[in-house]
Amino acid sequence: MSPRLFRAPSDTPGQRPERPLRITVDGEPVDGVAGQSIAGVLLAAGRTSWRTARSGAPRGVFCGIGVCFDCVLTVNDVPDVRACRRRAADGDAVTTQTRAAEDEDAVTTQTGAAGDGDEPAVRARTAPESRGDRA
After folding, report:
1. What is the model's pTM?
2. Which residues share a beta bridge with 60?
3. Of 76, 46, 51, which Cα lies nearest the Cα of 62?
């Protein structure tokens, strides 16, 4: 099976010309077609996973409809973008991310310096014992 190399018999050439686009993924250029999701561009380039879970297991597209968050990555410095939901745009800078790095930095990146008294922006990623006096 090919991700996009063969046209379906019902496709009529010329109705909608394919416009090529290029994104960078961790500094590497990856080519795609306008209208593809970022996940589609990555899958067409042969990348089936782009992050790892805490266990070290590879993660990529699981549900493909934006429910599971297995395909999250950083796009143009915006973290936790679901690759299956975001259309690729020419020039997008995509950075892969790992769950382990997110967990370690969840408090300091969301609140600024550790121990400054601010509440974390994302409580679900922060263990109760790391929130100070809250249980």
Report:
1. 0.63
2. 49
3. 51
**Residue 79 CB partners (closer than 8 Å, separation 6+):** 72, 97
- Burial classification of residue 125, based on how many CB atoms lie within 10 Å of its CB (0-12 exposed, 13-18 middle, 19 or more buried): middle
Look at the alpha carbons of 31, 37, 43, 49 in this order and tell me if their dihedral is positive or negative: positive
- In whole angstroms, what is the distance from residue 87 CA to residue 90 CA? 10
- Write out the residue limits of the CATH 3.10.20.440 domain(s) in the chain: 20-96
State pLDDT tens for residues 58-104. 989 999 998 998 999 999 999 999 999 999 999 999 999 875 444 44
Closest CA to 44 of 96, 93, 83: 83
- Give, in words, the CATH class of 20-96: alpha beta
- Structural Rg of the chain based on CA atoms: 18
